[in-house]
């Protein structure tokens, strides 16, 4: 155990967020931004959830490794996460792939993204490292995971979701014994192993790892010297430790943070158009599965200074209204009708338009008489007057990105082509 009785382990830990992924399944949403920088929930970005979990857990040293199209992500981090103070023993480092090890080498994998910054991590001398993925939506107290890691004397502790066996085929899956010690790790298995005592469920990796810092460095240095390695935690580091050390599974249910109205553990990979749309629209429910209004576990982000939202006009068929919807600051709903929609900052919805099941990113302009159903509209798009989407699937698919679930993603480039 930690020598200081009652001292939170999080104060001796550094959170290291891997935020370099492209997220290609989000299609045009990640053409200009990395997946962790994609907007979510009206005000935040996806990465804000992992960062807020770290902050709320008591961790005050954070590093974020970026790589793919990182400008908007880095700008967001500088604007929204610049309140850490060195004089309080706090730090927040943005660590782009900058060819620090070799003039020709970017980050080759998730493990390499940590290895290349060992000297920076060493300068802060954290006792523990918690490695996080920056592209999932969830609320979790990492202190609970750190405590389990120390109490069980583990070399690595891996955050795990309990998922039905059929769904586990797309994950890295832990084969555990009765004490949750990991005896095997299988990447995307055709026949996932069940949990002892509950064979219908499997333990799937969340991409969250806890190490003692010195042990992690030893693993990374050994891995970097292996010419056959792919420099990846899931493919290389974890299997090696499972085979040669003590690897323990930490069940998400033990550290998931729930508000009083949240009945189940909430974790989402919003990595597809359909999953992204659904998770945002879910927030419009009377009692959503994810409570973003929970002041005891706030989701921190860059908060723009904006005027309040406004609803105007009260004429027949021209009434600014929103039902079961989330509307952010600086939105003007001018004679437009909204139903089960989520609007980010600065949206203008003009007269006689109707939005249903719409996820509208910031600074979108919606022209008069537009009818938009089951759509995602990218940042800054200008929807022309009278555009109809969501009523003719074949016509939609010829003009826009239409998902398997029938969700249309609309970008400005797609709108521009309509005039040609």
TrEMBL record:
Its EC number(s): 2.7.7.27
InterPro entries cross-referenced by the UniProt entry: ADP-Glc_PPase (IPR011831), ADP_Glu_pyroP_CS (IPR005836), GlgC_bac (IPR023049), GlmU/GlgC-like_hexapep (IPR056818), NTP_transferase_dom (IPR005835), Nucleotide-diphossugar_trans (IPR029044), Trimer_LpxA-like_sf (IPR011004)
A Pfam family matched in the record: Hexapep_GlmU
EC class (word): transferase
Keywords: ATP-binding, Carbohydrate metabolism, Glycogen biosynthesis, Glycogen metabolism, Nucleotide-binding, Nucleotidyltransferase, Transferase
Any one GO molecular function term: glucose-1-phosphate adenylyltransferase activity
Nucleotidyl transferase domain sequence ranges: 16-284
Pathway: Glycan biosynthesis; glycogen biosynthesis
Residue ranges of every copy of the Glucose-1-phosphate adenylyltransferase/Bifunctional protein GlmU-like C-terminal hexapeptide domain listed in the record: 307-410
SUPFAM superfamilies named among the record's database cross-references: Nucleotide-diphospho-sugar transferases (SSF53448), Trimeric LpxA-like enzymes (SSF51161)
Listed Gene3D superfamilies: Hexapeptide repeat proteins (2.160.10.10), Spore Coat Polysaccharide Biosynthesis Protein SpsA, Chain A (3.90.550.10)
GO biological process: glycogen biosynthetic process
Keyword presence, ATP-binding: yes
Residues marked Could play a key role in the communication between the regulatory and the substrate sites (site): 67, 106
Chemical reaction(s) catalysed: alpha-D-glucose 1-phosphate + ATP + H(+) = ADP-alpha-D-glucose + diphosphate
Residues binding alpha-D-glucose 1-phosphate: 107, 172, 187-188, 205
Superkingdom of origin organism: Bacteria
Keyword Glycoprotein recorded: no
Protein family membership: Belongs to the bacterial/plant glucose-1-phosphate adenylyltransferase family.
Quaternary structure note: Homotetramer.
PANTHER family, sorted: GLUCOSE-1-PHOSPHATE ADENYLYLTRANSFERASE (PTHR43523:SF2), GLUCOSE-1-PHOSPHATE ADENYLYLTRANSFERASE-RELATED (PTHR43523)
Protein's job: Involved in the biosynthesis of ADP-glucose, a building block required for the elongation reactions to produce glycogen. Catalyzes the reaction between ATP and alpha-D-glucose 1-phosphate (G1P) to produce pyrophosphate and ADP-Glc.
Name assigned to this protein: Glucose-1-phosphate adenylyltransferase
Organism, as annotated: Martelella endophytica
Classification of source organism: Bacteria, Pseudomonadati, Pseudomonadota, Alphaproteobacteria, Hyphomicrobiales
Gene from which this protein is expressed: glgC
